[in-house]
Amino acid sequence: MGDTIQVTAAGDVTEITLNRPDRLNSYNAEMHGALRAALDGAARGNSRAVLLTGAGRGFCAGQDLGDRDPATMDAPPDLSETLKTYYNPLIRQIRGLEMPVICAVNGVAAGAGANIALACDIVLAADSARFIQSFAKVGLVPDGGGTWSLTHLVGEARAKALAMTATPLSAALAADWGLIWKAVPDEDLMAEARSLAASLAAGPTVGLALTKRAIQAASANTLDHQLELEAQSQKICGATPDYAEGVSAFLQKRPPVFTGRRP
Questions:
Q1: Parallel, antiparallel, or unpaired for β 58-60 and 49-54?
Q2: Is the entire prediction scored with pTM above 0.85?
Q3: Is the separation of the CB atoms in 110 and 163 below 8 Å?
Q4: Is 59 helix (H, G, I), strand (E, B) or coil?
Q5: pLDDT score, position 262
Q6: What is the DSSP track for 195-230?
Q7: What does R_g of the chain's alpha carbons equal in angstroms?
Q8: Buried (b) or exposed (e) across 117-134, using 16+ Cβ within 10 A?
Q9: Which domains does the chain have, with CATH numbers?
Q10: What is the model's pLDDT at position 47?
Q11: Beta strand pairing call for 122-126 and 101-105
Q12: Torsion sign over Cα 57, 62, 67, 68
């Protein structure tokens, strides 16, 4: 997997750290491959939650532009191939992972780095963190799902302004606007993120995965389609050992002990 990604297993949580701190954890091909392999490992293994963060003073500065510098090439780069090969599959992988993905943004999250964070299910950010749609500074459009996530999370007016001006957005304002879950003091970020990840990993994994799927589908579904999706999801959840355990624990007035097992 190389050194560009660090993976730590803590109980049922897989903690993944982007590890190119000298480049503000900007993405290159090796890092993409290592991150996708780590997510695959979490999906195949015993993990019930993933925690993603960055090493050093920033979360991720997006694409390493040194790898896409037209001055070093015989012809302009085909950036659509970069997206189709690396970023688009990564966004789909994060969104499709059948467990909660928590992101702890420990510093600047710029360009695709910001949008990969926003693809996660729950985002916590240190008070000092900044979210920057930096694409306009190099003549590009937001990618990594940015045009979709920004519009869905904060609306068209704010999405256009953030994308066109590349204005840094503070963690506190990002939380106020509904772009992320919450901002926390820098010194508390990882403790709170790990506590949240552990709590979700101890939850009813099937139900959480289906909740994730249903909420992600809601913006494109009609109410009738969404009601049917809820009914289908509830049928699956109702057959899980975790539903039986949850009901028993409720009736017996004790904390539930969920296993995350499928029916």
A1: unpaired
A2: yes
A3: no
A4: strand
A5: 87
A6: HHHHHHHTS-HHHHHHHHHHHHHHTTS-HHHHHHHH
A7: 19
A8: bbbbbbbbbbebbbbbbb
A9: 5-201 (3.90.226.10), 205-251 (1.10.12)
A10: 96
A11: parallel
A12: negative
Q: Which residue has the tokens 């039986």?
A: 244
pLDDT at 68: 75
pLDDT at 4: 97
Number of separate helices (H) and strands (E) present in the chain: 11, 10
Three-state DSSP class for residue 145 = coil
| First-to-final CA distance of the chain | 33
Strands 5-10 and 13-18: antiparallel
pLDDT attached to residue 66: 79
Angle between helices 223-238 and 241-251 (to 10 degrees): 80
Low-confidence ranges of the chain (pLDDT < 70): 1-2
Return the closest-CA partner of residue 100 out of 8, 200, 169. 200
List strand residue ranges (DSSP E) for the chain, in order.
Answer: 5-10, 13-18, 49-54, 58-60, 101-105, 108-110, 122-126, 130-132, 169-170, 182-184
pLDDT score at 205: 97
Question: Which 3 state secondary structure label does DSSP give 19?
Answer: coil
